[in-house]
Write a structure and sequence with these properties.
The chain is mainly beta. Helices cover 9% and strands 36% of the residues. The chain contains 5 helices and 55 strands.
Length: 752
């Protein structure tokens, strides 16, 4: 029996490659007879699948390694299991056989079992042998490189993918998918195509498209695409494509940033939806991308820098230069438009320049809205320049946008750093220019600028380097010397007003815009926003339910449909930089009020506008203000204009007023000091009711400047010491000292 057992063991061992008995956890596949499994360039999938099966059946092994230089020719799919890594040398190539005649949807690599997890593929080359398989149509599901379904924790990195008829990595119903540091050249469909997935990350890839897009999501959420370079050789589709279909899947956590996209046939970034779904389930954040010369298929109408339909989103700090047709557009895409309405794109801090016309008849617009009944723009502090068809089409211009040469470092070389007399990053060091870009310190006033190098002017730069360590520097290091006055201001000016005096006295009539405030951020004490959906002929009310400022609500009757609209109150520390001088009477509070985009809050679009505000009784009492003199003043046509103001209610702390206003701009609440003998005390209560407030918040909330949270105590919350309490502390301290002295004396006596 012993002899039979030993013979059995011997027969098993001779079928196991010798190296496996000596090395773990890697199994080597080679083409020169030095591997654990050896191939000959024909039907090499057989040996590679044997190696993958061995690793799957032996938990102490984790990796199948393809050694190079060698071309492994496969005529069937490789099957990979859980907890398995398939990797290889960069000169190891896995190539599809010629005349494969595989069925549609059969890939070169797939999962062995549904529900597989922890799959890693890295390091080698995949060659789709397009020229040897010309009997199929690219993009029709044939010969995908990798197709994984119902898998978790996938990593495909450091690969070279080239020359096939299908996708690079197609993942459907998968989670935690990482696609990084790959080089893809001329694939037959999408390089990455994620369908019904969650947790998708693609970064540091270099992609040259042939057909369709570089990176694509379909009904996929929690995804980030960043630091990718995507281009094409005048064919294919969009650089990045985001698609939502129907209501079953939310796509509201999508972020696309820090990518360089150029020379794509269709838009650099294409975002669209179809079917019926809540507009709150579709949201994308696109920022800090450089997009140039996109939309080269100028016979197609779906071209431009960024094109969107059926999504809400924030598009900020991007560079779009030399695109065909449109810079940023909301327009009809491939399929039927989504059923809903009220889709809003907030576009801020972008540079859009040199947009070109197309053969399809699009004149070359900076920002364009082709769906004005259902889709809307909010514009905030963009820079537009030299766009052939004009800066705006189907959207009202914003007064906060800049129309000027952005002063690129070297447009011909696509160096879009901004020229600066104080310092510009040239890729290796800081250099000095003889001119400074108007985009420096010109961004949205509440955008974060903390990552910009000093001096940074305490305001973000427009463009893709805004709020990054490579942002061009400001000429003056402006410090915050503004004075704080919580109980009103009588026109005393801090350094903000002196530094910005050239901007004073320029407030004009009509409505303000939430397109980004011109107010210096250091002068904003607190800011509150409210949003409502405005339709023609309806009464509109913006409630500021957080009670962060002196304004409680604004209301008016709408004469135009404007869609989802934001109203903003900025309560100021000092008078606005937009005004030249303080009003003649004592000032309780300065504030700015902006409603909608530029030009909205005029008599053409609204009527019967009213503002409800409040005044603290403590200020009235301490400043000896005549209650009947309290007035809301609006700055317009370079002067202060008192508005018809009426008392509407009071409580124990505040008096409440309403005022009729012809428009929205800088305001000041003032009062006249009474003669000493005529001062009348304000009674704590009365029978007048407080104006009814809607407690349902309709806006994103309050934005508070950092200065507001430091060492600030309101009059109602000041701490008051108990009389004589300091003396009690002193006596207790003295008794403690005497007691300790007695203990020391007793201890010394005992030692003696």
């Amino acid at each position: 029996m012993l002899i039979i057992f030993l013979l059995t063991v011997f027969l098993v061992l001779i079928h196991v490659p010798v190296a496996l008995c000596m090395a773990a956890p890697v199994v080597y596949v080679d083409g020169n007879e030095s591997g654990d499994f050896n191939c000959d360039g024909i039907d090499d999938h057989v040996q590679i699948n044997q190696a993958l099966k061995f690793v799957a059946e032996n938990p102490e092994y984790t990796t199948v390694y393809l050694k190079g230089p060698f071309t492994y020719v496969v005529d069937s799919a490789l099957l990979i299991d859980s907890n398995t890594t398939l990797e290889g040398d960069s000169n190891a190539t896995l190539k599809l056989t010629s005349s494969a005649n595989w069925a549609r949807s059969q890939p070169m690599i797939k999962e062995n079992k549904s529900g597989s997890h922890d799959i890693t593929i890295r390091g080698f080359t995949l060659d789709g042998n397009r020229e040897g398989n010309r009997n199929v149509v690219s993009g029709d599901g044939y010969y995908n490189f990798i197709h994984l379904s119902d898998c978790q924790n996938i990593s495909v990195c450091d690969m070279y993918l080239t020359n096939n008829h299908g996708d690079g990595l197609k993942a459907d119903r998968c989670s935690n998918v990482k696609f990084c540091n790959n080089n893809a050249y001329m694939l037959g469909h999408d390089v990455l195509y994620a369908i019904l997935c969650s947790g998708v990350e693609a970064y540091d890839n270099i992609i040259i498209c042939r057909t369709n897009s570089g990176l694509r999501l379909y009904n996929t959420n929690h995804a980030r695409f960043y630091n990718n370079t995507i281009t094409s050789e005048s064919s294919g589709g969009a650089g990045i494509e985001i698609q939502k279909d129907g209501s079953d899947f939310a796509m509201d956590k999508i972020e696309i940033y820090a990518n360089t996209i150029y020379n794509t046939a269709l838009p650099g970034i294409l975002v669209f939806g179809s079917g019926s779904y809540s507009n709150s389930s579709a949201y994308v954040h696109i920022h800090h991308n450089q997009i140039y010369d996109t939309g080269t298929d100028s016979n197609n109408k779906l071209i431009g820098g960024i094109v969107s339909e059926g999504f809400n989103g924030l598009i900020e700090n991007n560079l779009i230069d030399g695109a065909y047709g449109n810079g940023i557009a909301q327009d009809k895409t491939y399929y039927h438009s989504p059923d809903g309405s009220g889709y809003v794109l907030t576009v801020r801090n972008n540079i859009i320049s040199n947009i070109r016309s197309s053969a399809s008849g699009i004149a070359g617009y900076g920002i364009r809205n082709q769906l004005p009944e259902t889709h809307f723009f909010v514009l905030q502090n963009n820079s537009l320049y030299n766009n052939l068809g004009g800066d705006y089409a189907g959207v009202e211009a914003s007064p906060w946008d800049i129309v000027a040469d952005p002063q690129y470092a070297d447009r011909d070389k696509h160096d879009y750093h901004l020229k600066s007399k104080a310092g510009r990053w040239n890729g290796s060091s800081w250099v000095i220019d003889n001119i400074s870009s108007p985009c420096i310190d010109a961004g949205y006033s509440l955008s974060d600028y903390s990552n910009e190098p000093e001096p940074n002017g305490d305001r973000i730069n427009i463009g893709p380097y805004g709020n990054t360590r490579y942002a061009s520097k400001s000429e003056i290091d402006m410090s915050n010397n503004s004075s704080d006055n919580d109980n009103g201001n009588n026109g005393d000016e801090g350094d903000d007003e002196k530094n910005d005096k050239d901007n004073s006295g320029k407030s004009s009539g009509g409505g303000g815009g939430t397109g980004g405030s011109p107010e210096t951020p250091r002068n904003i004490e607190v800011k509150e926003l409210s949003q409502v959906f405005i339709t023609n002929g309806k009464e509109v009310k913006f409630d500021f339910t957080k009670n962060a400022t002196c304004v409680l609500y604004i209301g008016f009757d709408s004469k135009k449909t404007n869609g989802k609209t934001t109203s903003t109150v900025e309560m100021l520390k000092n008078k606005s930089i937009l005004v030249s001088s303080p009003p003649p009477e004592k000032v309780y509070k300065y504030f700015n009020l902006w409603v909608g985009n530029s030009g909205y809050g005029t008599s053409d679009s609204i009527e019967n506008p009213v503002i409800c505000f409040r005044v603290n009784k403590t200020w009235i009492r301490e400043e000896k203000i005549e209650q009947s003199s309290i007035t809301l003043n609006r700055y317009n046509d370079e002067k202060w204009n008192p508005l018809l103001t009426s008392l509407s209610g009071e409580d124990g702390t505040y008096l409440y007023f309403t005022a009729e206003t012809p428009g929205f701009s800088p305001f000041a609440i003032t009062g006249r000091a009474a003669a000493e003998e005529n001062v009348i005390d304000i009674m704590p209560e009365s029978n007048i009711e407080t104006p009814e407030q809607n407690n349902e918040s309709k806006g994103p909330g309050i934005e508070v400047k950092p200065e507001q949270t430091e060492n600030k105590v309101t009059p109602e919350k000041e701490k008051v010491s108990m009389p004589g309490f300091e003396l009690i502390y002193c006596i207790i301290g003295l008794l403690g000292v005497l007691y300790r002295s007695c203990l020391l004396y007793t201890s010394d006596a005992a030692d003696e």
